[in-house]
């Protein structure tokens, strides 16, 4: 069931890089099955990775390289629309816009303004001090290594000698082993020196210039660094899953960790989720703190017995004698073009089970802070990542980069403050909600966007406080509508109150008027409009891109729902 | 070509070493019985194991010409044959069953691990206690005092002898028919009774149905109702022991029915690959509730599965306490010393019903049950051996049975009178720290109780 999946991260990253029409990406033609194939993909993948990370940096190319600080950030957000040569789909542009807005918003509204300002100055100083021409040279020198390891960050470990040695060595072995087969020369310099790689080179330099000024981090690196730091801090933490070691993780989240911590702490397992989830639970029963990776949470269904019956219930059933400090993590929800069995959101499923904690990170900050919290937590945690966010960069503060950084479990984050309507959402949809909020702002609607961060426990007080302020609520999720997140959907209430406004969206098919019990119970009297609930369509995910797009919420859907909630509905044609 | 020769030699050398270790193992264990290998050996085997965890590089095929007699395939060398022949589905002869005592309790060989006299007597006493406890608790269920019970009739030797062969540091992952292991480890009759009655002194705070015992103190993991999940857990915990370099192993018990689950296969495979100190103890008692083994699987029992997964395996007579004791002793040595899993299949008939929810006379002949109870009774057989050794008398027998009965009855009477767990215990332990939603619920519940105190059940302390 999982073997074909090995191919799709590559596919997806390619998509990310050449999202729309381009299928001339250098897809590996030869794939003679040998033991070393993973490495082959690995290299290949890294290659894409590097460029994947930087696709947004294509923009930087168009601006002077000495652009710094906020200017650069702004340019980055806007540039794709100026028409870079490679087509970038709407989806891929959006997060950039969001980022800009969110950081702007922060600067204006958040109480952390002073800190932020301080950081900015500090960063600038740092940059002026440290970023000399020599650094450019260094960056250039590093480039080959970067290509090999696919890391564009200044992570200490990524740059550590041992890390490089590992990859270089394995590359060498690999040539020795299969030296006669020319088709295996994947990391060959001939390829690397193509015009494309030159372009990448520039991007890398640009990205360096950029990252050292604005301190951005991809979600992938955030997760990787969080794992790394927690493993280094606590010898009881170990990773287990399919392809987490030699292959560096299906999505490279565990990159470099095998080399750093050895095969006893980064365990490649035989293929059965039921097996390694069960073994992980057993290890957690007795002293270790396993982090179990599912290649996608769809496959966690094989292991649901161990997650629910064993992990979630043991502490209670043993009356506290057996605690289960385990983390189940992996990508959840819809990716792109991977069909029904790779695209389901399980937030509501796990959110329904007492004994579990369910976290849903959106940004790099979320990913780092929540994963660290999850690993340190004494209870079983289901950590639902999103594959499409892995390659996305987010601004991160020095505080977030500190190894002691940790976020509280069960606290939502107000990503953007507003006064007219509250949008609660999580994971990838936070980005969409922020984009929607931006559009709405232009039309005079001030939307407050709450990034739930934690599905269980749910931060009811933040949601309630917000609804009491805005008097309107729109919930957004990717999962199925029935018994969806919010676990508190009360049909009886919703039916009696929703009929007047029940309009099915042309785009999503599914806009139900449902009520979240937490709000209905505590803040119903504050509501000025029926609650709008946006979710995925009530069907297994279709593969065809056009249908897939219709099956998950889009920014427009959020905009329209908010307008309805604000009694500002316009015709579909006007907004579509 | 020459370039690769050193690699090849090293590889063969490594395999050769492993081979000789394996083939010599039996003799070496027998000769060095009970002598633990040196620490450095132990550590070496560890580092070797981690080394072997890395993927082998498969480049030896380069040396094979077209006419070679063997194939160096990933995983090891395979010889070619021109014979078109399938492996047999049914073996010509079934795997033999190791036993020490004959049906009447006489030694048939000296090939067993010696048991200390005191240990032997305690083993017998605990077997009798287990029998007595089962009888009386079963009756208590019939009288409606507890909701459910499940006996270990016919499997007393498996329970007690396997427990006796382990050390207290070894972790037990039970199914549910292994109360005797806990009894051996010092769980008191009162504790058993408290659990079955779900009172406030119960280790599990009254949260589980009867017989789901668990005790951290005794390294006995709480019984789970889900069949066979404990097998994977035992492998995970064994991995934990191994990471700590502890001088202990895990043992997990399961029935013949449990071996049909995916967990069984996953656990055996993982244990073999991860090379962890775990003993898989299958109680093949012929019946999974009403499903006989002939409907459960068509292999020669369970023991042959171990071989398929690359795990050393043995079949023992589960009615022979000395055989079970010896097998587990040996398995423990292998598990800890080599950090490898071992599979034991013990044959013993389930002489009672599956549980109090079952009437096995509906699906199997009474005569069959009676024959096993009489002719193959593990307790009687062990007693005869003890007598032969001069360790047991008729008088001791009468006294033991009397006192056992009294003790069990007393425990039940006490447990019945102890009050039930308090309201608070509904909410605790769902998480390590009580989250706000549960605090809210508790507060709300208490307010409701206060408002409707006249309707509040008196048997739930506040």
UniProtKB/TrEMBL annotation, chain A:
Full protein name: pyruvate dehydrogenase (acetyl-transferring)
Alphabetic keyword roster: Oxidoreductase, Pyruvate, Thiamine pyrophosphate
Top EC group: oxidoreductase
Organism annotation: Penstemon davidsonii
Biased composition, class Basic and acidic residues, residue ranges: 27-42, 63-79, 89-125
EC numbers on record: 1.2.4.1
Positions of region (Disordered): 15-134
Classification lineage: Eukaryota, Viridiplantae, Streptophyta, Embryophyta, Tracheophyta
PANTHER family listed in its UniProt record: DEHYDROGENASE RELATED, PYRUVATE DEHYDROGENASE E1 COMPONENT SUBUNIT BETA-1, MITOCHONDRIAL
SUPFAM superfamilies: Thiamin diphosphate-binding fold (THDP-binding), TK C-terminal domain-like
Cofactor(s) recorded in Swiss-Prot or TrEMBL: thiamine diphosphate
Signal peptide: none
UniProt xrefs under Pfam families: Transket_pyr, Transketolase_C
TrEMBL record, chain B:
Matches recorded under SUPFAM superfamilies: Thiamin diphosphate-binding fold (THDP-binding)
Domain Dehydrogenase E1 component, residue spans: 125-423
Keywords: Oxidoreductase
Superkingdom classification of source: Eukaryota
Keyword Oxidoreductase listed: yes
Protein name per Swiss-Prot or TrEMBL: Dehydrogenase E1 component domain-containing protein
Organism: Penstemon davidsonii
């Amino acid at each position: 069931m999982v073997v074909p999946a090995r191919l799709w991260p590559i596919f997806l990253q390619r998509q990310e890089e050449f999202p729309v029409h381009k299928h001339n990406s250098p897809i590996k033609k030869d794939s003679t099955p040998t033991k070393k194939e993973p490495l082959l993909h690995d290299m290949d993948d890294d290659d894409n990775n590097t460029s994947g990370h930087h696709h947004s940096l294509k923009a930087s190319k168009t601006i002077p390289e000495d652009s710094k600080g906020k200017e650069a950030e702004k340019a980055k957000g806007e540039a794709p629309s100026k028409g870079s040569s490679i087509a970038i789909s709407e989806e891929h542009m959006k997060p950039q816009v969001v980022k800009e807005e969110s950081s702007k918003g922060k600067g204006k509204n958040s109480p952390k303004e002073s800190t932020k300002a301080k950081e900015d100055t500090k960063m600038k100083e740092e940059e002026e001090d440290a970023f000399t021409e020599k650094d450019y040279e260094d960056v250039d020198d590093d480039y080959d290594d970067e290509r090999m390891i696919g890391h564009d960050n200044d992570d200490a470990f990524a740059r550590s000698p041992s890390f490089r040695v590992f990859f270089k060595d394995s590359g060498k072995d690999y040539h020795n082993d299969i030296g006669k087969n020319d088709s295996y020369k994947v990391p060959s310099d001939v390829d690397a020196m193509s015009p494309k790689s030159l372009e990448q080179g520039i991007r890398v330099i640009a990205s360096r210039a950029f990252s050292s000024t604005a301190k951005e981090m991809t979600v992938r690196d955030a997760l990787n660094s969080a794992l790394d730091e927690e493993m280094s801090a606590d010898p009881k933490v170990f990773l287990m899953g399919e392809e987490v070691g030699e292959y560096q993780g299906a999505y490279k989240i565990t990159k470099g960790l095998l080399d750093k911590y050895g095969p006893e702490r980064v365990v490649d397992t035989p293929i059965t989720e039921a097996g390694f989830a069960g073994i992980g639970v057993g290890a957690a029963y007795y002293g270790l703190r396993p982090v179990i990776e599912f290649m996608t949470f769809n496959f966690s269904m094989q292991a649901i017995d161990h997650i629910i019956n064993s992990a979630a219930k043991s502490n209670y059933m043993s009356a506290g004698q057996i605690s289960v400090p385990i983390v189940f993590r992996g990508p959840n929800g819809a990716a792109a073009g991977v069909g029904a069995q790779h695209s389901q959101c399980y937030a509501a499923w796990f959110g329904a089970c007492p004994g579990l904690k369910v976290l849903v990170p959106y940004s790099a900050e979320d990913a780092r802070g929540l994963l660290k919290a999850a690993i340190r937590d004494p209870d079983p945690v289901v950590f639902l990542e999103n594959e499409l966010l892995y390659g996305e960069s987010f601004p991160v503060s020095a505080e977030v980069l500190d190894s002691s950084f940790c976020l509280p479990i069960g606290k939502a984050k107000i990503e953007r403050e507003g006064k007219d309507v509250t949008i609660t959402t999580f994971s990838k949809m936070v980005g969409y909600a922020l984009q929607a909020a931006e559009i709405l702002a232009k039309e005079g609607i001030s939307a407050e966007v709450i990034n739930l961060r934690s599905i269980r426990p749910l931060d009811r007080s933040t949601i309630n406080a917000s609804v009491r302020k805005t008097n309107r609520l729109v919930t957004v999720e990717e999962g199925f509508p029935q018994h969806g997140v919010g676990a508190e959907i009360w049909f009886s209430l919703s039916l009696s109150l929703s009929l007047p406004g029940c309009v099915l969206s042309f785009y999503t098919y599914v806009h139900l008027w449902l009520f979240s019990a937490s709000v209905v119970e505590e803040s119903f009297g504050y509501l000025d409009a029926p609650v709008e609930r946006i979710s995925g369509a009530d069907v297994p995910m279709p593969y065809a891109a056009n249908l897939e797009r219709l099956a998950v919420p889009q920014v427009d859907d959020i905009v329209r729902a908010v307008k309805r909630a604000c009694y500002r509905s316009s015709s579909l044609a006007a907004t579509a | 070509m020459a370039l690769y020769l050193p690699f090849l030699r090293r590889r063969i050398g490594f395999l050769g070493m492993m081979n000789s270790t394996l083939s010599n193992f039996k003799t070496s264990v027998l000769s060095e019985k009970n002598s633990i290998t040196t620490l450095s050996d132990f550590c070496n085997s560890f580092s070797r194991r981690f080394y072997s965890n890395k993927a082998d590089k498969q480049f030896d095929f380069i040396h094979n010409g077209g006419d070679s007699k063997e194939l160096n395939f990933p995983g090891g060398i395979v010889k070619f044959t021109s014979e078109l022949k399938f492996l047999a589905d049914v073996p010509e002869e079934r795997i033999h069953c190791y036993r020490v005592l004959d049906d009447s309790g006489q030694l048939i060989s000296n090939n067993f691990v010696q048991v200390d006299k005191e240990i032997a007597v305690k083993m017998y006493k605990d077997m009798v206690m287990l029998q007595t406890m089962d009888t009386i608790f079963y009756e208590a269920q019939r009288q409606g005092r507890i909701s459910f019970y499940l006996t270990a009739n016919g499997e007393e030797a498996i329970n007690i002898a396997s427990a006796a062969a382990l050390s207290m540091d070894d972790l037990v992952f039970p199914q549910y028919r292994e109360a005797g292991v806990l009894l051996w480890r010092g769980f008191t009759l009162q504790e058993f009774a408290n659990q079955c009655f779900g009172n406030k002194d119960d280790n599990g705070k009254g949260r589980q149905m009867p017989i789901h015992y668990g005790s951290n103190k005794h390294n006995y993991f709480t019984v789970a109702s889900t069949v066979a999940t404990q097998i994977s857990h035992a492998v995970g915990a064994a991995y934990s022991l191994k990471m700590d370099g502890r001088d202990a192993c895990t043992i997990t018990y399961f029935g013949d029915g449990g071996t049909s689950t995916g967990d069984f296969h996953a656990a055996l495979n993982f244990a073999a690959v991860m090379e962890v100190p775990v003993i898989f103890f299958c109680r093949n008692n012929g019946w999974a509730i009403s499903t006989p083994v002939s409907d459960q699987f068509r292999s020669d029992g369970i023991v042959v599965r171990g071989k398929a997964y690359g795990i050393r395996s043995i079949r023992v007579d589960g009615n022979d306490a000395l055989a079970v004791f010896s097998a587990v002793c040996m398995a423990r040595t292998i598990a800890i010393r080599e950090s490898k899993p071992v599979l034991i299949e013990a044959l013993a008939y389930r002489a009672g019903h599956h549980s109090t929810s079952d009437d096995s006379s509906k699906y199997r002949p009474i005569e069959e049950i009676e024959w096993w109870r009489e002719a193959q009774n593990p307790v009687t057989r062990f007693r005869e051996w003890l007598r032969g050794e001069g360790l047991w008398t008729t008088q001791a027998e009468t006294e033991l049975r009397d006192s056992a009965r009294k003790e069990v009855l007393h425990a039940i009477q006490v447990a019945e009178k102890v009050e039930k767990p308090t309201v608070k215990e509904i909410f605790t332990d769902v998480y390590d720290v009580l989250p706000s939603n549960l605090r809210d619920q508790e507060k709300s519940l208490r307010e409701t109780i206060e408002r409707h105190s006249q309707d509040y059940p008196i048997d739930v302390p506040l």
